[in-house]
Amino acid sequence: MRVAGAADLAELIRTQVLDDSPRPPAQPAQLTAREPEVAEPVAEGLSNQAVATRLCLSRRTVETQLSAIYRKADAPSRAALASLRTGTAFGGLS
């Protein structure tokens, strides 16, 4: 049984690093019909509870949808979500 040496491992890594084959661009995930309704007031600065009250939802539902929106829009924070809103409607993300 042959044990892989450092040279073998280096060759394996080198081929992976140098692999410059084209990759398809990442497609943004589509928002559900409700998610833009949650994203808009959050981007305006409303708290989760205020959004929940406005939309007649539970705070936990808003938090769950907001987590999905962050993931789909690749936005790490409320501020990033608000910056996405500038010049782009959230419906455009869907």
Index terms:
Sig_transdc_resp-reg_C-effctor, Arc Repressor Mutant, subunit A, 94 residues, DNA-binding, transcription regulation
The helix/strand series, from N terminus to C terminus, equals HHHHH
Radius of gyration: 21 Å
Q: What is the overall silhouette?
A: elongated
Question: Which second-level CATH architecture of the domain at 34-94 applies?
Answer: Orthogonal Bundle
CATH class categorisation of the domain at 34-94: Mainly Alpha
Percent strand:
under 5%
Largest sheet: none
| Low-pLDDT residue intervals, each spanning 5 or more residues | none
Helix count equals 5
Helical fraction = 55-70%
Instruction: Give the N-to-C terminal Cα separation.
Output: 53 Å
Overall pLDDT level: 78
What structural class do the secondary elements suggest? mainly alpha
Q: Please, what is the CATH homologous superfamily of the domain at 34-94? A: Winged helix-like DNA-binding domain superfamily/Winged helix DNA-binding domain
Number of beta strands: 0
CATH topology of the domain at 34-94: Arc Repressor Mutant, subunit A
GO molecular function, one term: DNA binding
InterPro entries: Sig_transdc_resp-reg_C-effctor, Tscrpt_reg_LuxR_C, WH-like_DNA-bd_sf
Protein name: HTH luxR-type domain-containing protein
Organism: Wenjunlia tyrosinilytica
